[in-house]
Every structure is written in C-alpha cells, then in structure tokens.
Amino acid sequence: MMNIRPIDRSYTICGPAVTVRYLPVNPLNPTSEESELISNHATMIVNMMNALKTGDILVLAALGRSDAGVAGEGMCHGFKAHGASGLVVDGGERDVPVIRNDVKLPVFMSGNPTPTVARWHIHEGKPGGVLPKEINVPVICDGVRIRPGDVIIGDECGLMVIPVENAEMVARIGGALEDIEELQRRLIQSGEYVHMQPMTEEILKKYNMLDKWRIAKEAQV
Q1: Is the CB of residue 158 less than 8 Å from the CB of residue 2?
Q2: Contact 118/92 with Cβ under 8 angstroms?
Q3: What CATH number was assigned to the domain covering residues 5-162?
Q4: Per mean pLDDT, which range of 77-81, 84-88, 90-94, 217-221 is the poorest?
C-alpha cells in the first residue's frame, strides 16, 4: 500500500488484519440501503470493537475518501482499549494531534487530517458520507486486497500485506535475511566486506551463517 503513511514517522505495525468494508452514502437523499447504514452506524462501531483481539490491526477500507474523517479520538481510544495494535485507514482521520500525542495508537492513513465526520460532511459543495457495511470480509485498501487474518506490516516507508498462508514462510526467510544483513553491516563497517560483494562460503561458515544463507536464498533476492 504505497499511498498510506503513518501520522507519526516513528510508528511501526505488525499484526493480523481485522477488516471493515465501507460504502458511500448520500446523507441528504439516502437510498434504502444507505438509510440502513446510517441507522446501523453506532451498532457497527460497537461490532468493530468486539471483533478485535490483542495485537490486531484494524483496516478501515473507506474507499480512499480523504474528505471523510473516518475515525477520531473516541473511536481510537476504543480500538486501543479492545486490543488493536494499529489502525489502517483508506481515507482521512479526525483528531490527529490528539491521537498522536494522547491516544498513541499507531494510525496509518491514505488521506489527510480533517475536521469532518464520516457520516455527514460537505466537500466541494456536495454532501457526502462513507459508513461501515461489513466486518471481517475481503476488502480492497489502497488498491491491495486484504483478507481477515492477513498480516499487515509496515513503517513510514509504506505497508505490506502478507497472505496469512505465507506468513510463517515470510517470517522465516525475513529473519534469516535480517541476520545475514546484520552480519554484512558489521563486515562493511570493519572493512572486511564491500556491499553487493558475493558472500563466500568461507565467510558464512566463519560466522555460522551458512544455513541462514540457504534459507535466505529461498526468497531469490
């Protein structure tokens, strides 16, 4: 997800996704389905809280609506209290200074800080809204398909989605790669190695990294 960034550059997140699919609403002239979304809004917020377990990343797939403040201070306090370790919002966010300084929930979003609420606001002279429809269903967030339980990992460089069935393999290969790169950093600093130079079997054996090198090669990187 290349367009989603943290509200604080120090934030990192990693955890399984709890997904929420949003739909647009016209608050002045709602269809019957939109009227149902408006009526069920408060219940859906409670359901989001109850769907969370400790360590979960809540993904609000709000259609990239940067004009809508999809969540704010109160919701973020609730998400954190119910175990969320991070929030990913494909849209805007309210109360960003308070969330960053007081709530301290790692929030990543595609939109901008905004004073608007999700259900009802005026943008470019038009009334608009976006409200939650379903929880724990496949969603598209910033152009990436996310299923419930898929692993979200990221920092200020961007977010990645790891399919849950590949998570163990990715963690194993990623751990091996990190150990190899940490060794390379030390050797570069000591002058024993030049970046992009092939790692010789002699060096790998010397530092007990041969097995990890073989694991890392599975990734073909």
Answers
A1: yes
A2: no
A3: 3.50.30.40
A4: 217-221
The structure tokens listed for 220 are 């073909």
pLDDT tens, 16-52?
Answer: 999 999 999 998 899 999 999 999 999 999 999 999 9
pLDDT for 186-195, tens place per residue? 999 998 888 8
**What does the pLDDT look like over 70-79, one tens digit per residue?**
999 999 999 9
Structure pTM?
A: 0.90
Strand ranges in 70-169 using DSSP code E only, listed in sequence order: 86-92, 107-109, 121-123, 126-135, 139-141, 144-146, 151-155, 158-162
The residue ranges of every structural domain in the chain are 5-162, 167-217
What is the C-alpha separation between 108 and 86, in angstroms, rounded? 8
- What phi and psi values does residue 37 have, to the nearest 5 degrees? -60, -40
CA 132 to each of CA 20, 126, 177, 205: distance values in angstroms, whole numbers, following the listed order: 6, 20, 39, 55
